[in-house]
Amino acid sequence: MLWLPALMAFALIVLPVIGLVVRAPWSRFGALVTSPSALAALELSLRTAAVSTLLCVLLGGPLAAVLARGTLPGLRLLRSVVLLPLVLPPVVGGLALLYLLGVSGFAGYVLDVAFGVRVPFTTTAVILAQTFVAMPFLVVSLEGALRTGEQRYESIAATLGARPWTVFRRITVPLVLPGLGSGTVLSFARCLGEFGATIAFAGSLQGVTRTLPLEVYLQREVDADGAIALSLLLVVVAIVVIVVGRPRSAEGLR
Q: Which of 102, 120, 122, 210 has minimal Cβ neighbours within 10 Å of its Cβ?
């Protein structure tokens, strides 16, 4: 009974990629994906996605712990706000960041006047846009791991005299490591494919803010073959990221 819808779902995911493979300009593929603009966009995408994912872990990890283990009132509302980037169109998130940190935004005005710092249309803006859209993936994965983790081990260690930092480092972290790994991989993949928030908040400046998805969009307007080749490059990079990171993070779930 389940095979038919499962096959249909698989086909819905795979067939569009096969369409790209069939249509790809294989005779010029190497030249298209190694052009200076393509390599610059790929390098920028990988670099910003790595930094954004690190921010997701450093900031989203504590947030996930608060949501999973906290007892403060209003946590349900806080969780809803945290998940907002999952349902908002990314371009809306980009506009929200622009009107917060742009020159006309209240935070952007302070940064500009007090420190002479302008965030929009810089590489920093790319990183913030990616972090905004990707952090919920880390928070959801890690919060789920924290909620389902065996808290009795932590309680036993505490009653035996272990300090809170020791309990966290020796017990909590190993228990939630699969969820953390899964969330990290998902966050990195989401950062790598981010488009809407980036173009709204950071623009498309070659070597500065033009990531690989933006380069695909630009090439689509001038060279369809180039857009297809770069799309396949992005697909390959995403698959490599998932294959390398996902099995290790999923071992603990078996």
A: 122
